Amino acid sequence: MKPGISESQPHRPGQIAVYCFAILQVCWLALPTSLRAQSSASYIVVDATQKKILLEGEPDRKLPVASLTKVATATVAMDWVDARNGDRSEMMTVPYSVGSLGGANPLGLAPGDQITLRDALYSALLASDNACALTIADHIGREMMQRTGGPDPVSVFVTQMNALAATQGMSRTRFVDPHGLSANGYSTAKDLARLMIYAMRNASFNFICSQQTRRVAYVRQGQSMAFDIKTTNQLLGQMGVDGGKTGSTAKAGECLILTVRKPDRISDLPGGMKRRVPYRLVIVELASSDRFGQGRLLIQQGWNAYENWLASGLVVKDAKEMLTTPTR
Q1: How many helices (H) and strands (E) does the chain have?
Q2: Residue 9: pLDDT above 50?
Q3: Diameter over CA atoms, the chain
Q4: Residues 82 and 67 sit within 8 Å (Cβ to Cβ)
Q5: How do residues 259-300 score in pLDDT, each as one tens digit?
Q6: Cα–Cα distance measured from residue 54 to residue 65, given in angstroms and rounded to the nearest whole number
Q7: E-strand spans in the chain?
């Protein structure tokens, strides 16, 4: 008799489950990328340094993007403050409109509360805080109105979000609010990759998105209220994931942006010089049924595709293989 389970010994349910899982895993890994990534209606994996598109599936499809919108909100706010040598510790007053806002409000902000721009950015990006996103738009929108005029602060701010999208070549994107709750806004996986690559130029943005937790505070009727917020990005700190943003609404489904890093590649140059090339991926998933499960898969496949491209000598056969972004 062969070693192992005897012919007379019945298979236990646990053993059968293990065998079935192993078989399914092998079959899953054998599928081509286009079939294995179907948990998302649209996705893209891009080398963030050279803009090479490594993997994609319907990346130009217009879809609602939920709280991924907040990447644009935070970026416009940071650009505005930095351009004016502003202070992110400035206090903002939570607007009356927060009282009727739905979705995530993890701090329990109410109209009239006060919070710093810095803490609002942390809560908006880490905890996907809709109230903070709206407060940022209202506060900075008022400053913008002093220069440009406009119907109301939030509308003026959203106009700047769309202006940012235009400068980044995001031609299939339309933002309609600063938080992503509206079903009327849309973007694409490819456009959001462009946006994320731009946002990553700001070291403060990268630092915020890299944090697992953060203590933030706000003031209510003269009393300071402190809270510990936690990132909604379940992959942060795993598989090289060092940032990103989550989003989810009934219409948008599960959405996710990931930034993934490996140690930089260092090569020798003539004269004893060294060349350092960052290993960095940007992954975008829209309308996913399992964003974190697919995220793990796309990280693995993305690095495999990158290594294959590297082995080919970084050959680009068609301009469509590259993510076009502005040169400035």
Answers
A1: 9, 9
A2: no
A3: 87
A4: no
A5: 999 988 888 888 888 888 789 999 999 999 999 999 999 999
A6: 22
A7: 40-47, 53-57, 91-93, 114-116, 213-220, 223-230, 241-249, 253-268, 274-288
How far apart are alpha carbons 9 and 31 in whole angstroms?
34
Long-range contacts at 233-236 (CB < 8 A, ≥ 24 apart) = 233/126, 233/209, 233/258, 234/292, 235/292, 235/295, 235/296, 236/210, 236/212
Residue 325: other Cβ atoms inside 10 A: 16
Average pLDDT over residues 102-131: 97
Provide mean pLDDT across the span 210-234: 98
Instruction: In whole angstroms, give the CA distance from residue 17 to residue 161.
Output: 50
**Which tokens belong to 132?**
């903070």
Instruction: Tell me the C-alpha to C-alpha distance, in Å, between residue 129 and each of 68, 102, 134, 299.
Output: 12, 10, 9, 27
> How many CB atoms sit inside 10 A of residue 90's CB?
12
* Predicted model pTM: 0.86
Q: What would the two tokens of residue 279 be?
A: 């290993």
Of 6-20, 104-118, 187-201, 262-276, the poorest mean pLDDT is in 6-20
How confident is the model over 199-209, as a mean pLDDT? 98
Nearest CA-CA partner of 215 in 83, 126, 284: 126
CATH class belonging to 36-321: alpha beta
Sign of CA dihedral 248, 137, 104, 243: positive
Q: What's the confidence (pLDDT) of residue 175? A: 99
List the chain domain ranges.
Answer: 36-321
- Is 265 or 172 the better-scoring residue by pLDDT? 172
86-90 long-range CB contacts below 8 Å, 24 or more apart? 88/116, 88/117, 88/118, 88/121, 88/204, 89/116, 89/117, 89/118, 90/116, 90/117
Helix (H, G, I), strand (E, B) or coil at 291: helix
Cα–Cα dist 284/177, whole Å: 20
